[in-house]
Design goal:
Layout: E1 7-12, E2 34-38, E3 41-50, E4 60-67, E5 70-82, E6 100-109, E7 115-117, E8 124-131, E9 139-148, E10 154-167, E11 176-179, H1 183-190, H2 197-207, E12 217-220, E13 242-246, E14 249-253, H3 255-266, E15 271-274, E16 289-291, E17 294-297, H4 306-328, E18 334-336, H5 347-361, E19 369-370, H6 374-378, E20 385-388, E21 399-402, H7 419-431, E22 436-439, E23 474-476, E24 482-484, H8 486-507, H9 510-520, H10 535-552
Parallel strand pairs: 2-10, 11-22, 12-15, 15-18, 19-20, 20-21, 21-22
Antiparallel strand pairs: 1-3, 3-8, 4-7, 4-9, 5-6, 5-8, 9-10, 13-14, 16-17, 23-24
Helix pairs in contact: 4-5, 7-8, 8-9, 8-10, 9-10
Length: about 550
Amino acid sequence: MSKSFSGEACAVSELRKILPSDMLSVGVDDDSITPSFAGERVAAQFAYRATSAQPFNRMECDVRVRTDLRDVRIYDVHLVPCEMPAYPDADDRYLLHSAGMIPDRLERIEPGRGRVRFLPHYWQTVWVEATIPADAPAGELALAIEFLEPDGSVHAAAQRSFLVEDSFPGSGRALAHSEWVHTDVLAEYYGVVMWSEQHWRLIENYVAPLKGWGVNTLLTPLLTPSLDVDPGRNRSACQLFEVEQRVGGYRFDFARLMRWLDIARRSGIETVEFTPLFRQWSVDAPSLVMAGDRVIFGGGVSRPGELEEYDEFLRQMLPALMDVLRATGWERSAFLHVADEPDEQHADAYRSAVSIVEAATGGALPIREATGSAALIRDGIVARPIVGLEAIDEVAAEWAYISCAHGRDVPNVFLAMTGMRTRMLGALLFHARVTGLLHWGYNFWKSQFSRRMIDPFLVTDADRAFPAGDPFLVYPGADGTPIPSIRLHYLRQAGDDYRLLTAAAEASSFEHVDALLVAAAGGSLGWTDYPEDPAFFERLRSIAAQAAQRVIV
């Protein structure tokens, strides 16, 4: 390859999404040194571009990393379509307000087998993740990247350093984090039969990486989710048990559920949450229940007496479920949803449904409910609410959730939001004393109301229904494994921040650490009032580590 081609590279903050229109200079490399801990997973991002015109045969380079860090993974950051970045009432802190391209999809580069192509006129980026050795001494650790020409010479290079502190200060508490895995979508996208061996392999492929991304709570389709589907229609049946209807009762076979729970345990999942027992936005229609190929409840058209029959079905099914949970050791690590997003008009029906569930489970299976109804929470009808971020300051809640409805000023995972904004979730959840986070879209590769499958490589907004990025955090790999997004890694970093802050609070006090956190943010911190400078996280981690270690020693 002729040496007449030239290129350049520089380190940039991993929290920065480099748009095609961004102008960078090698002279303004990100030279910050982020405090990190032995055994911790860290990330770095490097921008590269061609600096001279090239003929049709573009400059392609292999990528090599030089570092003492371990388990190094290199990703080529790909732009994805962002046709609907936000709703019309969005705030002005989005990267885009009209259609464009956003960096998000992370394609793995295997050293020696994967190449990147230097292009002129705009910057591309490479994302690198690695683990600091558990026995690493305090001090700086460098991570250098080299772009190699075919003859092995270095075409361009850059470096990033990490300041290794002592080992992680205390155990801390992991944020309870749920990203809803949609098993029916996996079967439909890959064209396999539900609960076939191919389907089970896909499920394990998509569940196994969750723990490494900070996700420890797994949506479990006890019943077919009646989520984001047109009234009167159902998604593909995917319930985790078989049922035989007999005179005077039912016989249940939970073999599928037991296999599911075994996958969850092997994958490091800590809690399972069961899909709602009733249809979304109501408590007057049951979720779909199949007996073989026959619909016995929730067929779309309610029949006289169906709800009463369904109540009796729940009175028999739920005790059988509790027997399985006890036998498999999950009885203290599970919760369920009765209905998704109930409101005041469902108060009486919801209260009745809850009483049936509590009686059938002996009150041993907690009920957590995502709801925007302050009245249901205030009146104690929803005892363990999961609330939208904006409502946390108004009602007491252990869990929060994010969805398309939470996009004005507050953090979320939308494509057009900055990495800083997504990562702020960890610090803000700690500040609000929230212990759990739920997001509905890990792999929802469908249009709104589940009317058709979409191509997630081309459509990121469920057919212009939700802000781009809201429906999913992973892309479907051709080999049946998930392709991660930058946003998924931001969520992992948010979880790491949360755990560090809780470790500091365990060693001193919540009030002490929270005061330091607010000071690091400039004296004010809230869901719509938070720093936008990535240097905040350097201050957060230094202050929290010092607070913890000062008490420990």
